[in-house]
Write a structure and sequence with these properties.
Length: 443
């Protein structure tokens, strides 16, 4: 059987390759690192996480929780790795970055049906192909796509939060707590009104690091840099990443005026990131501002925030709900390139693209999950959204049909969760040929 090409070794490409291998289809996985690095990546590992280490909230009332459950049912390699590399994060699924990417790299690289090619792909490969090149798709490949399909690209810019060393945090000025008394997995740095005012004034005057060609920036709303939020108004941060609601300082018995939350980044708890503080500021400015935060006056920054360019397709113009390009049988897109936002969503679309690429290789038509499932709702959105002003989408309850009957918000979401997971499981069970268990791909 001819090998299927998977271009890109991020979460989407890794999941696509794994799904193909489970179905016995040989894979040629292209990853240009380390021969050519990106502004965001630091290693040559597959599925390297470069922004937040969270795969989203868990549970039956969370839309990402449903997508996580669907991926577990599907035998996802990303979910398997996430369980092994899990770190405490309250109600969210967060991972140790190195352990997570190391596990996926080891699993894939030792499979007998895979050929791992470390080079940049500059043209669309012939044959059945999954394009999962992620937010930093090379200019050469982007130009090749434009030549074939037309100029249907949009670009937006997102940013990563700084990470500080735990031992450098002054714990006498912070407190552990989750909002509304939930699990105390976060460190909270409280601010008085005067401290917030000084911080805000310094933030809006801070110097950004923006290349000359980054003009008319178009941020995805869920990833707006903290300095851009601050420029929207004095109180914007107080209703965003610095909101104190539900956080009571045990030393005062009251909610602070503002709060900066820190989340554990690695399993050992040595590194903590500033929640919601994605930034594109110059590094000296980042250090100055971080050290204005109570408890972080002597913080050692082990990774500064970075801002990088993301490239994605105008999915409604180019893709069907199976993630196959319209009018280009056997060519699929997955991940951020396909128009989704988030690690979990990228992996899920990688699974579907890999499944359908395998089906094409086996002489079968591609398929899509039911609309009640979160993955089904997500890919239907990509295929049917308004192409004018299209922006990437992440898992949310608005993607799936509501349930009938009078019930509270919590009960309704739980019912949607159960219905979606049942529909997705039935869809998996009806696949022909069936999707083998994950163990079938192990060697």
């Amino acid at each position: 059987m001819e090998r299927v090409n998977v271009v890109g070794g991020g979460l989407a490409g890794s999941e696509a390759a794994w799904t193909l291998l489970r179905l016995g289809v040989p894979v040629r996985l292209f990853e240009m690192r380390p021969k050519r690095m990106t502004p965001a990546h630091a290693t040559d590992r597959l599925a390297e996480i470069v922004c937040s280490n969270s795969l989203g909230g868990e549970g039956e009332t969370n839309a990402k929780g449903l997508l996580q459950a669907e991926m577990r049912r599907a035998g996802s390699l990303v979910m398997e790795a996430a369980e092994r590399a899990r770190v405490p994060a309250g109600g969210a699924l967060a991972v140790d970055r190195e352990e997570f990417s190391g596990y996926i790299t080891e699993r894939l690289s030792r499979h007998p049906l895979i050929e791992l090619v470390r080079e940049e792909v500059r043209e669309i490969p012939p044959g059945i192909t999954v394009l999962a090149t992620g937010p930093l798709t090379s200019e050469a490949l982007a130009e090749a796509l434009k030549r074939r399909f037309g100029d249907h690209f949009l670009a937006y810019y997102d940013a990563a939060s700084p990470i500080v060393l735990y031992e450098s945090i002054d714990l006498t000025k912070c407190f552990r707590a989750g909002r509304y008394g939930q699990s105390a997995d976060y460190l909270n740095c409280p601010m008085t009104e005067e401290e917030y005012r000084r911080f805000y004034e310094a933030l809006v005057q801070a110097e950004k690091h923006v290349p000359h060609d980054w003009e008319n920036l178009q941020f995805f709303e869920a990833c707006v840099p903290v300095e851009e939020l601050a420029r929207r108004g004095y109180q914007t941060l107080l209703f965003g990443p610095m909101k104190p609601v539900g956080l009571v300082d045990p030393r005062t018995g009251k909610e602070p005026y503002a709060v900066v939350q820190l989340r554990q980044e690695d399993k050992a708890g040595r590194m903590w990131s500033l929640v919601g503080f994605q930034t594109g500021l110059r590094w000296p400015e980042q250090k100055r501002l971080i050290q204005m935060i109570p408890g972080l006056e002597n913080a050692e920054i082990v990774r500064y925030g970075v801002m990088h360019r993301n490239t994605y397709l105008n999915a409604p113009r180019l893709l069907g709900e199976t993630l196959e390009f319209k009018g280009a049988e056997g060519l699929f897109a997955a991940g951020v390139l396909a128009g989704v936002e988030g690690y979990l969503e990228s992996a899920a679309t990688g699974f579907l693209a890999g499944l359908n690429a395998a089906r094409r290789a086996l002489g079968l038509p591609p398929v899509a999950p039911p609309e009640e499932s979160m993955l089904g709702g997500l890919v239907r959105y990509l295929a049917t959204a308004n192409p004018e002003g299209f922006q990437p989408m992440y898992a949310n309850w608005g993607l799936v049909p509501s349930v009938e009957g009078r019930m509270g918000k919590k009960e309704k979401r739980q019912a949607m969760y159960r219905r979606g997971l049942e529909a997705f499981s039935a869809w998996l069970s009806g696949l022909n040929p069936p999707l083998p268990s994950p163990e079938a791909a192990l060697v």
